[in-house]
Structure formats: structure tokens, C-alpha cells
Write a structure and sequence with these properties.
290 residues
């Protein structure tokens, strides 16, 4: 069964810096929230059901303890930060109703990224009251690759429905249109994306791959393609699978452009897209299109 994209994980050094950058880009940002394994986030929720998760280390002792205990999420975050620093695009999560079944499937495919686990975290509602969200995660990854990993997210106790105000963004963003990943060998990662999202790849004439998940496309493209499509900002040589760009759907591109210009955000127009290059607090290229 094809899975929808649930969210994107974007490591940051400081949530305050990430919040400031995302607000400057026209996004509404949720209150800071802490995980019981030492990380914290400040999410951007989209009307179409996906969200961005800027992720920082909130409690170094809890974080180290979780790594030592084999927490797959924290362990892979640690590897990513050691290799690439405190900012980037480290994971894509798919929606699921049965993370345990997903885990068994990943194990059988030889693509398990670690043991599945559950956790809960508090949620602050608009009226100041508190609720709790609970999740179960299952991980898929190439064993020898410390770059981007995939996982499925089962919302055991979902976020409160009283958060619609968080999905209204001044830049007009409504959802994810495309996630672009970069690799020197896209075909090598096709089984990984297929296993995590239940969709097979369609290849173009140069070997770039597209996975048509419900509502959005996941692409694995060569560095040259990424450089050409996103203004040459991704020419550095990195092996494995690496998060390069996030393309957002917007209601009116003119509104988006006006907001970015008024806020002094540097951007370029390329075809039908507005491109914003990576910056502190924004670990991937952002593109906006109608």
C-alpha cells in the first residue's frame, strides 16, 4: 500500500535560530516541544497533512543515554550531526497505521534501520492547556549509509485537532509538492524508498528516479540534475543518499514572492519556482510553486 509523506526531519543547532528563519520565510511555527530521549522540535504544520520537524538537542545527557541504549532515531541523528554538522535534512517519515508490521517488513527486506519503538510527548494547545501525542516508529535504512534515513510514523494518539491556526502560513504554503534527494547512484536506493513508501520508481533518461507517493513526489536525482534545477547550489560531492531540497505548494506565487521580498529574504525565480538557498536554521533548499 502506498504511504503518504508524514514529515521531514531537519537537524538544527538551535531552535531559536530555526524559528527565526522559518518565520522570516513566512511559516507559522508551533511551540517548542521536547522528546523523552533528549531532542526537541518546533514544527511547521501544513494544511495537506505533512509537517517539517526542525530538530535540536535539548538535553545532552538524555540524548547520550538514548544513543547508548540503541534508540534508532537518536543514534542516526547523532551520526548525521557528526558527519555534516548541526544542520541539514536527515530523514523522511511516511504515515502508517501499523509500525510493527512495517518493522517486520523492513527486517525481511534486509533494510531495517533499528528496532521500532514508541514514545509520547506533551502538546500545548492554543488555550494554554496541555495534551499528549503518542507515536510508534519503524526504521528503514541502508546499513552502510549514515546520511538520510526513512521511517514510518504511526500516530497512536494523534495531535489535537485544535491546531488549524498553525497551518495558516503568510507565504501561502499549503503542502509538500516534492522532496528531492541526491545520490551518486539513485538506483541503489530505489528498494529503500519502495520499502518505506510502497511505491515503485519511474526513471527518466538520465537515471533520476521519481516515486509518486499520494500527494507528493519523492525524487532521487544525480548531483548534476540538482545543480541545474536548483541554481547550482548542490554541486559538492557527497556519496550515499542526501536530502537536497523541499518543494512547497503555494496558493499564489505572487503572494509568496511579495512576502519574501518584504522580509528581505534572498530568493531567485527559476521557471515556475521561487528558490531559497540553505541558510542557518534552514538545512535544505526550499522551493515554492503553485
Amino acid at each position: 500500500m502506498a504511504r503518504e509523506i508524514d514529515h521531514i526531519v531537519m537537524p538544527v543547532a538551535d531552535l531559536g535560530q530555526a524559528r527565526a528563519r522559518l518565520l522570516a520565510l513566512g511559516f507559522t511555527v508551533a511551540a517548542d516541544a521536547r522528546h523523552p530521549f533528549g531532542t526537541k522540535n518546533a514544527c511547521v504544520f501544513l494544511k495537506e497533512g505533512q509537517y517539517l520537524e526542525p530538530l535540536a538537542i535539548g538535553d545532552a545527557a538524555q540524548y547520550s543515554r538514548a544513543c547508548a541504549e540503541g534508540n534508532a532515531f537518536v543514534r542516526r541523528d547523532e551520526v548525521f550531526r557528526k558527519r555534516y554538522g548541526q544542520q541539514g535534512f536527515s530523514a523522511v517519515a511516511g504515515k502508517t497505521h501499523d509500525a510493527d508490521a512495517d518493522h517486520h517488513s523492513f527486517v525481511e527486506a534486509g533494510l531495517s534501520g533499528g528496532d521500532a519503538f514508541s514514545f509520547s510527548r506533551p502538546v500545548t494547545l492554543p488555550d494554554g492547556s496541555r495534551s499528549e501525542a503518542s507515536f510508534r516508529l519503524a526504521f528503514a535504512a541502508e546499513k552502510d549509509d549514515g546520511n538520510l534515513f526513512l521511517f514510518t510514523c504511526e500516530r497512536v494518539n494523534a495531535f489535537s485537532a485544535k491546531r488549524s491556526y498553525l497551518t495558516a502560513h503568510k507565504n501561502g504554503a499549503t503542502g509538500l509538492r516534492e522532496i528531492t534527494l541526491r545520490s551518486d547512484r539513485p538506483d541503489a536506493f530505489a528498494p529503500l524508498v519502495d520499502a518505506a513508501f510502497g511505491v515503485s520508481a519511474a526513471a527518466d533518461s538520465t537515471g533520476n528516479l521519481s516515486f509518486l507517493t499520494p500527494g507528493a513526489v519523492i525524487r532521487i536525482a544525480h548531483a548534476q540534475t540538482v545543480a541545474e534545477e536548483f541554481d547550482g547550489a548542490e554541486q559538492e560531492s557527497i556519496t550515499g543518499l542526501f536530502g537536497a531540497a523541499v518543494v512547497f505548494s503555494v496558493a499564489d506565487l505572487a503572494v509568496t514572492e511579495s512576502f519574501l521580498a518584504a522580509n528581505g529574504v534572498e530568493y531567485t525565480r527559476k521557471g515556475s519556482r521561487l528558490l531559497v538557498q540553505r541558510a542557518p536554521g534552514q538545512g535544505a533548499i526550499f522551493a515554492f510553486e503553485e
